[in-house]
Automatic annotation (TrEMBL):
It comes from Capsicum annuum. Its EC number is 4.2.2.2. It comes from the Eukaryota. This is Pectate lyase. Pfam families: Pectate_lyase_4. It catalyses: Eliminative cleavage of (1->4)-alpha-D-galacturonan to give oligosaccharides with 4-deoxy-alpha-D-galact-4-enuronosyl groups at their non-reducing ends. Residues 410-434 are annotated as: Disordered. Its cofactor is Ca(2+). The lineage of its organism: Eukaryota, Viridiplantae, Streptophyta, Embryophyta, Tracheophyta.
Amino acid sequence: MSSATYGILLFYLIAASFSPLITAHLNLTLPHQHPYPESVVQQVQRKVNESIERRQILETVRENKCPTGNPIDDCWQCDPNWDKNRQRLADCAIGFGQGAMGGKGGQIYIVSDSSDRDTVNPSPGTLRHAVVQEEPLWIVFAADMVIKLKHELIINNYKTIDGRGANVHITGSGCITLQYVSNVIIHNVHIYNCVPSGNTNIRSSPTHVGWRGKSDGDGISIFGSRNIWIDHCALSHCTDGLIDAIMGSTAITISNNYFSYHDDVMLLGHDDKYLPDSGIQVTIAFNHFGEGLVQRMPRIRRGYVHVVNNDFTHWQMYAIGGSANPTINSQGNRYTAPDDPNLKEVTKREDMDNGQWDEWNWRTDGDIMVNGAFFVPSGQGLSNQYAKAYNVDPKSALLVHQLTSNAGVLGGPRDNSMSMSKGGTTGASSSGNAESNSGDVNLFGMIFSGAGASAASLQSQTTTLTLLAFLIILTLYLTITNQDGQLSIPLLLLI
């Protein structure tokens, strides 16, 4: 038999063995990819419009509890006692990452020690000790603190880093890594001055320590992960990307963040020829793209990105770029071009001429163009697969400034300008840098019952599905691709 025949037989043997697990996923192009992205887009815009209408009603009766109309903030911030139920935040995500549970249902873990001395045996009370635990955890901070990482911080499944109520700064070597994990929420922290590091052992769970090569120096690196939500953070001054999502990562929402002072802001997709990145689906909403930014807000390969109600106030090359036929759906954003007459275009197709990209599905719907900015759309006359994505009225376009007015970290400077002016440190209180004695400090706060066991069970099931899907995709890719890396039509029909 040929290698292709062996590959097909192996596919059917695996499918037959695990058919109860994969039946529900047969309508997906790739594992964990939403089959109808346009429905997610519509849902996002409906929530925005509902929040704006609610705000307008409250204004008529002179109530100002929810002044912005931002649906994420309205979900939890309108409650003056939000701190009594922090885990309510997990119900507030929108878009492709709305399924991110984080540590919902788990215990509250209180970080009381800002040190990061040992990447193999982290001290209880440190952020590193919290994020590698197996069980779902909702991680909060006892005081203001600057956490200077020794090496990259590898986060385990089902974790929420919740910086509300404290002034939390994460900086140093490696910064934050999400690799082959799911259900992570990162909220309300400053992330900056991240530099490459590695070539050392780093713990990723209570039972696993692995050798790590040199990292890229990303602020947040998302690698082969899903159900991720990054909200109300301030990111700047990193060596590589501020946020990179690659190697088949999907189901991601990036919202309410303040980006500044960086070149390659956000990369979505590993390589033009890496087929699993066709399943990347990301919502980018209510962010402020501010001073000192150059490009990649984002730059996407193959996947689908919904860019909605962001304020782009600065770029030195372009705002949104892509390659390998990604779908870009831009709705209700404000693009303010620089004064340079050669830098007015919002979009950039990487290394392609018109004949190659004119069928790519790039849309602008209700965007506001300022100072000569212009968006070059493409894809007229394509299939109706994404048609519904363009039929939602983006009523919020004229309210972009209001929707993004709280972008960045809440409760203090929204961006990292104060940190940069002090050479990468902050005026954090001395108590934030105090080291804990694990014998005297209770690291865990309130226990929320019920959801912990189900989250662990879900994690086990999704891990099995992930491994299965990887085997199937790898087998098909190795055995039924031609020399150009494209799937042949006859074998697609077999699948």
